[in-house]
Amino acid sequence: MQLIAKLGILADAAKYDASCASSGAPKRSSRGRDGLGATDGMGICHSYTPDGRCVSLLKVLLTNFCLYDCQYCVNRRSSNVPRARFTPEEVVRLTLDFYRRNCISGLFLSSGIIRSADYTMEQLIRVAQLLREQHNFRGYIHLKTIPDADPLLIEQAGRLADRLSVNIELPTEASLQRLAPEKQVRTIRQAMGTIHHGQQAVAGEVNAPRFTPAGQSTQMIVGADATDDHTILGNAESLYQGYGLRRVYYSAFSPIPDSPTSVPLAAPPLLREHRLYQADFLMRGYGYKAGELLGGAGNLALDIDPKLAWALANREVFPLDVNRAEPALLARIPGIGLRSVQRLVALRRERRIRYDDLIQLRCVLDKARPFIVTSDYRPPQSETRSGLLRERLREPQAPVQMGLWG
Amino acid sequence: MIALDCDEHFDTWRDQARVLLGHGIDPTEVVWAHGPVHDLLAVPAVLPQGPGPFRTRVPAALLDQLELAARYRGEQRWNLLYEVLWRVAHGDRTAMLAGDRLGSELQRRIKQVSREAHHLHAFVRFVPLPAALAEQLQLDLVAFHEPAHDILQSASGHFADRLGRQRWLIATPRDGIRFDGSTLDYRRHCPEQWRQWACHADDPGAELWRTYYRHTFNPARVNPDAMRQHMPGRFWRHLPEGPLIARLVGQARQGKQRDGQAQEVGQQGGKRIGRGDSPTR
After folding, report:
1. Is the ipTM of this complex over 0.95?
2. What pTM did the predictor assign?
């Protein structure tokens, strides 16, 4: 099979993995040296596809032959898709060619499970080894980790790659048993533990060889089973805490061709995915706890963002005086982001903050207005009930067409 | 009214501004323009001689910020900088901060400039030259790019870090830059020859990249507005994948968003795997 035909099949097979980040790698440069590639911590999105997602890495599978039969996956063994397999050298050639053209900042390589977990992992490592050692490639490398692979192989991968990821796939053990019978929560978490352990071993040691300097990540599929956002966010929080994960990706389940009846055939729940990312960002960047964002069972509201939802549920905290409140509290005002908080703090060292300043800072005042006090403004709506405020602030929802078969 | 031309050079502007400040000349008394000034009311006056009596110190961070903002192409490019400098020099530091009306415009320009540098790093597409031509021109990769602000000189070092000993050039409608494997050669006016090489390079190898682009796209998630927001349309015509966009959106809208697979893959014969199968090449 020609390289271009393989590329078509194996890129198509890899698109369901959401991660494409190339950020967080240490400073590396090829200036005046043999080889190719640089990283500086900043990710670069080299293109965007018409689904609005960024193309930062060459994201392909080494092969889409797979012995597993995960129901949500287009490459499961019972799926009727064309199959292909790259040689490690072919992946290297594509990576270097695209990199030279400035189309990508590195490689994200994953694979179907062939022969055994160890064999598959060895193949992935082989590609990274060729790139790093034979071609002096200093760009970004993200390798998917096969959960049941030997910990020694995972450690070897961690020394070559900037990022490793093990997909948790489904948020509960029961769903995993039902939809991905060959996978186990226990071995997935073990692999995460191996990576975390490798990171801790070199933490603080300046001269130690690097181990996954851009951290580890995982992905959860949203909407393939009935799990609610409360469970998903709780799970994500425990992963951040337990394994020092850099990112949890949420992937709205896209219907797959030749779909088995065990998974839905509905359009991917994109807005739900968006709200989960917002909530996740609030946990990582703003210090919200999962329990604050969603108190009980159920899903995040779709018509308002989770920060506004928290503010409406906690009116006793507001209105906050922008001239006095602690920065961490300022960041909890809807419509005021972390960057605006920094700028407000810098500005209030010079003089009192007025309502107009918030306009200049491009804060989203429609959202912020009921929750703030400035030197020349008090919210007339501070007495308005949250329910009424919510009616005014909710985002219009596109009408949903009713299903033909109910 | 003093009419000045700094030839779009920050260093020239800084020298002029220092003299003006020293003589206490108000921002409303000066105008910077490129070429002859067409202001009927402007009675041309000359830049005063000598440094002037007014002495002041401004924070070093201000000069860095002014230099960044100077790369912004737009109305009042140099006047705005002098107004900020004037206010900070007279003790009003808020002129640098985003909360202030003037400071907000300054910060917006800085942000646009750094965004444009990022666009350069993201959307430049190099075309590899065939071996014989590369040897003849002493050049491995060429690119044509149209930045909206003057960022080529300051932001191109990035590619020397990425590409090692490769020799490359980037041509734009205004300036150009070339790297010979060890040093950068920046030209304010791009040599016509560079532009010819960059615009007329043959690129049969681009089909691989276009194939990848088509297949990594998930039609079930089609959302062209989000794409446009991150990758403004003005860059599309120099991207090899640019011409594909309209067709991919069209196909997705006409029913292809049922699932995530590209049409070409669905049309090929599939293969279910039995447990005993071993993968072949």
Report:
1. no
2. 0.91
